[in-house]
Write a sequence for this structure.
């Protein structure tokens, strides 16, 4: 029989498992914080790049518009000088040049009004006068010159032409007689559709918009999208409060009061002609690809996090189960220890799974003699006693004892829940036999 001392069950430290779970949770929180922070940085970087791009677009369009108006300013100034010098040849040549490239597409009409505001020339009917007299006395672009309020080229508000019957921007310059007295006004009409088409070709998205406005009062001169909503109307429009704070140039994110679309706006002002170009891109269209990618990453990260949490919960569950098992083993160890201490003569624990192994106290070895390798274990369950009792042992055999039958031996009993069988000896002072001796 192989003898071994009673070993104390190893205690499982569940605290390390829960500490590891806590560390894993902290790492998950840090991962999500870093993920959300990096995604927010991506949004900010994309918005910054879009602001830079739209600012550059507004600057370029402002320069192009200023160039166009500068060419018209130069041509009308030469015309006014020739008209004041009564140089009819130069007047006719300049009138013809204003209806040829590069002015042909940009200029809808050339008109000359006399000092009373009556149209005396129109490029729409150059050979014959209009059947009915047309006066522009009530037009602002005539009144400012008649009253001497403006020197040089004046950029008026868009009007619906009484002759051309289309929305046009009125660029006007005063004409004077050789003696310097007021002789009338030269009017160059630029169709708003021309500028709107030029602006529309710059930005590709349907909800992107470019508008040209007068910086002094904010009135629209042209708009690339839905110009009919703003031309000739006084209303609160996008970017007003931001433009007031930064009149020369700037950018802002805001919702248009015209079509209620959130855009990223940028504007640039040309001080020479009191013009402001405002460009805006649809913020949703700009951010949509990035937001789709962010959503995809968040979904995948969320699934990975859920799987990790499920794994952690399973680990915690198995840890709790193992801790319960360790508690049960510790309780059994305490019970066995108490049993051994109660019977100092000796206790033999037989395991049904390992029939060649027994645990005993030194006293049992002293009484039963040294254990021999291969020696038979005391009778137990499934192993009947085939030995012939000695005469002395037979004489002391208690009544009703059946050797080798479990339950008939008052000195042997099963251990609850383990399948092991205990053999307990009585104190040597009483002379009780030790089973298996």
């Amino acid at each position: 029989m192989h003898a071994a001392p009673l070993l104390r069950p190893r205690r499982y430290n569940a605290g390390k498992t829960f500490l590891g779970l806590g560390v894993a949770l902290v790492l998950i929180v840090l991962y999500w914080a870093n993920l959300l922070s990096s995604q927010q940085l991506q949004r900010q970087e994309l918005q910054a790049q879009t602001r830079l791009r739209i600012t550059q677009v507004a600057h370029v369009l402002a320069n192009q518009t200023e160039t166009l108006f500068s060419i018209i300013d130069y041509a009308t100034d030469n015309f006014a000088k020739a008209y004041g010098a009564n140089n009819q040849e130069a007047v006719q040549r300049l009138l013809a040049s204003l209806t040829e490239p590069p002015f042909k597409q940009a200029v809808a009409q050339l008109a000359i009004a006399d000092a009373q505001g009556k149209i005396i020339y129109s490029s729409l009917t150059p050979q014959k006068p209009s059947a009915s007299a047309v006066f522009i006395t009530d037009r602002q672009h005539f009144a400012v010159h008649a009253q001497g309020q403006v020197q040089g080229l004046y950029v008026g508000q868009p009007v619906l032409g009484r002759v051309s019957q289309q929305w046009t921007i009125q660029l006007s310059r005063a004409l004077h007689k050789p003696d310097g007295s007021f002789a009338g006004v030269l009017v160059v009409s630029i169709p708003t559709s021309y500028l709107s088409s030029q602006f529309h070709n710059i930005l590709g998205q349907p909800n992107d918009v470019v508008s040209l406005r007068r910086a002094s009062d904010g009135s629209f001169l042209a708009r690339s999208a839905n110009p009919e909503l703003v031309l000739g109307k006084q209303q609160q429009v996008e970017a007003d409060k931001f433009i007031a704070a930064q009149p020369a140039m700037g950018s802002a994110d805001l919702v248009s009061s015209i079509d209620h679309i959130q855009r990223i706006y940028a504007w640039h002002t040309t001080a020479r002609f009191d013009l402001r170009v405002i460009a805006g891109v649809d913020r949703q269209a700009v951010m949509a690809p990035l937001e789709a990618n962010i959503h995809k990453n968040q979904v995948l990260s969320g699934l990975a996090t859920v799987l990790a949490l499920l794994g952690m919960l399973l680990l915690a569950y198995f840890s709790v189960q193992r801790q319960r098992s360790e508690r049960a083993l510790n309780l059994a160890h305490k019970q066995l220890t108490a049993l051994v201490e109660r019977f100092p003569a000796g206790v033999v624990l037989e395991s049904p799974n390992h029939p060649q192994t027994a645990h005993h106290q030194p006293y049992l070895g002293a009484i039963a003699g040294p254990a021999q390798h291969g020696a038979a274990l005391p009778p137990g369950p499934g192993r009947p006693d085939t030995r012939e009792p000695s005469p002395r042992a037979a004489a002391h055999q208690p009544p009703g004892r059946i050797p080798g039958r479990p339950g008939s031996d008052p000195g042997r009993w099963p251990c609850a829940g383990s399948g092991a069988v205990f053999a307990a000896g009585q104190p040597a002072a009483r002379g009780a036999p030790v089973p298996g001796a």
Notes: Residues 14-84 form the longest helix (71 residues).
